[in-house]
Structures are given as structure tokens and as C-alpha cells.
Amino acid sequence: MPKVAIVGATGAVGTEMRRQLDLRGFPVDGEPVYLASERSAGTRLPWKDGEVEVRPISAAAFEGVDVALFSAGGGRSREWAPVAVDAGAVVIDNSSAWRMDDQVPLVVSEVNPEAITDRPKGIVANPNCTTMVLMVAVKPLHDAFGLTEVVASSYQAAGGAGMSGITELLDQAAKLVDVGEETLRAHGAQAEGSVDAQVFSKALAFNVLAHCGSFTEERYTDEEWKLLNESRKILALPSLRVSPTCVRVPVVVGHAIATRLTFAGPVARDVAIEVLQDAPGLVVEDGTGQGDEPLAYPTPLGSAGRDEVFVGRVREDLGDDHSLNLWVVGDNLLKGAALNAVQLAELVAAE
Ligand code: A2P
Q1: Which pLDDT score is estimated for 62?
Q2: Structure pTM?
Q3: Ligand 1 in contact with 159 (CB < 6 A)?
């Protein structure tokens, strides 16, 4: 049985990693090693019926570890993943630090599991949460119809920015409820300026922010570049055209993506639905509420705490018979992060 470490065990994704290891019955040797910052050292966190003490990261902490799950930010991954590998561990890294390294596979368990065995650096990268959710729906359609272009607008939850993002959203929401309806309706700029915004650039509660992450000189954000570069790498389509817009919405957990997918030939909705219904890890919820069709489409709130990725609003494009429009939703902390990381650990353990 593998000995397992979780780096960032106190964080939003680390918390889910701990739960997923237990829920999925991952065969952990003894108890896992919980690592975080000095601030959390000595804190005790649950493991099965007991508790495990959180330790600060150190080389000694990786001794004997076979699988190390990292979700403590890119800086920690860059510094400590090679240390964990030197100690004999396979690293599964949830940060963006290693994703675009040619010698590091970028793996979604349903999409390109075969890539995981080729890992010369001993590191496997877990994709960006938005890209991950989108790929689960895109891959079967690509296999069936041959993908040529993706236009994607994301609606990303606060939880994508970690526990502090969730806390900030909830604090702002409570404050703005107190500020009251009239200010929110008639003096929005005053309401927007009245709350503390540290994690996000402006008030996120009762608002929509037209960027996630930081801007690059091309006027796109790093989150948008991740969607482009990581999609190309995961699908092994290095020239895929991707037009991304990443938006933050006042949702605690659950990322949604409205996407237009273009294929090599004409594509019909009913065939696409069959393909999506047969795809692993995917649930189709698609109904208009007209006639005998029940109204059905997935929501971020409805996906929170669920393992699957959900797809709905599947429509043939109105102007291009090679294109489909669809709505894809998934829990960014589960399939978008911790669940996929543990699924990758399962693939490694099964080798
Ligand atoms: P800590 O709780 O001790 O700060 P989130 O993504 O929810 O913000 O969580 C980030 C995770 O990364 C937390 O477990 C956090 O630990 C950990 N972390 C942040 N900075 C460091 C650091 N300098 N060294 C080790 N762990 C860190």
C-alpha cells in the first residue's frame, strides 16, 4: 500500500483530497502525512475515525512517501515537488507550476489516462479546474466529430480561488444584505465600494467580475491562457483554436462554461446527445420544459458535492452546421481538482 502525503492539507482542495482518499477507499499505508504552512503546524485534522497532526513542509516529511498530492500553490510545488520525487514519491500536482512542462503529463482521468505512465520527472500535473470540467464533455465529442475550434466563456465560482475566496464572498454577501435593497438597486457603485475585496479585485457578491487571475500583456488573463494551452495539451491538438473568456461569479463552488464547439464536419444534436450520454464521468441534463420534455439543465449549486460533470443546453449552432453550443458544469473542487487528483493517484497505484 502506498504511503500518501497531502501538501496543502488545510486548504479548500486539500480538504477535499483528504475526504476523497477516505471516501474512495484509496489504500493508504498507515495514516497520511498532512503538510501545510508553519501557521497550521500542530493543528489536528480528521482522518477516518482519528486525527492527524499537520506538519510544516520539509524534506524529512517526504521520507517513505510513495504518492504526494500537492495543492499549496505554484511556489510550493516548484520548490518541493522535486524534493518529494527525490525522496521516492510520485507527485500529483494541482498547481499550474508543472502543467506545461514537456516532461510532465497533464491528465484528466476520463480523457487521457494513458498519458500518466510517461512521467520522466516523476510529476503528474492535475489540470486547471475550468479546463478539466470542459475537457470531460469535449473529449467524447472530439472523438466522434473531430474538434477544430472552441469558444468558451466560463462562469467560475469563488472557491476556485481557495478557501479565502469562499470566505470573502460570504462575508461580502452578508455585508451587502445589511446594506439593503435600495443601495444595491440605486447606488451600486457605493455598495460595490463598501465591502472589503482582497482575494478578488472588486466586490464579487451580487456581482460578476470580467476576469479571473491576472492579466498578461496580450490583454488575456492567465486563467484564459490555461484554458487554451491546457486544452491543446490534454487533447493532443497543438493547433486547436481556442477563444477563452473567464468570468468570476458569486457562486461558492461549481464552475460553468458556455461553449461553442466547431467540428470538421456537420454535427447533429441527437447524435451529440447519444455520444455525451455514453461518455464516462458525464451526466446529460437537457430539457426545454416544452411539450412532454421536462425542464432540465445543470447549475453550479446543483453540481456542488457531486463527482460527475454535467452538460445541458445542447444546441446546433444557428449559423454553422459544423458547430454545437452547450453548457457544461462541474464541482471545481472535486472533478475540477481533488477528485481528479485522487483518480490519478489510483492510476499510479494500479501500475
Ligand atoms: P495554511 O492553511 O497553513 O496557510 P487554499 O487554496 O484554500 O488557499 O489553501 C492553500 C493551502 O496551501 C493551505 O493548505 C495552505 O496552508 C497551504 N500553504 C500556503 N502557503 C504555504 C506555505 N508557504 N508553505 C506551506 N503550505 C502553504
Answers
A1: 98
A2: 0.96
A3: no
